[in-house]
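Write out the 3D structure for:
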Amino acid sequence: MHAAKLHGQRLRLLSYNIQVGISSRAYHDYVGNSWKHFLPSPGRSRNLDNIAMALADYDIVGLQEVDAGSLRSQYVNQTEYLATRAGLPFWRHQTNRDFGHFAKHSLGLLARYTPYVVEHHALPGIVPGRGVMLAYFGCGKARLAVAVMHLALGRGARMKQMAFVAELLHNEPHAVLMGDFNCLPHSPELRMLQQRSGLLLPEQELHTFPSWRPSRMIDYILLSPSLRLHKAEVLQLPHSDHLPLAVEIECPIGLNLQSVSKA
């Protein structure tokens, strides 16, 4: 490995709920394709390959609703598969609900750079099975903290979960928080998260759900004020029930990332 010093250079980040590789084109697909959440389907690998082509353009990717290797994914760790196909040398998954051979509900992190540590945290809630994965790139005051999470459907649980994550990140000078938050931009829980963490939303509202007719903003990439946002966009990729959200940021001067050696 070698250190790659980024002085005002840019990073491209992406967050994507991939629905374990299931493509949805209408609400009735939730019924018609429900079996794909439990059993393998012939089109899943092709769909994952299409997702990987999009991921290849990004430096750090946070994934939600990936499977870590069970019957429905044909025992393929989807995070590893996507990283390999996208040419992103670092990958890590966090399984939050493990149903053995039937399903392994997970988060995924893919990157061109090696974080010096990755932390795995369970999120609070009456029903267990939600988590946040926190990776630190670089070290010292210039380190970049990147967190990936998928929050609960209920507001009460989300409020507790966002309070937990805000506590994790509020002392980080350069932080990115991405994922499927399952709430709208002006929700009280999201406002609380911003107040406690200091993280900022993009100025424009970016609709990611449902993928076939996006009308709701429930997927987010929040940034510390120290990270200059150059671009934020939703990618029109019909490979899930969500669309991916992408941003391009300028790194703080002095941030050192670890590039993965191909030797």
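The longest strand covers residues 90-98.
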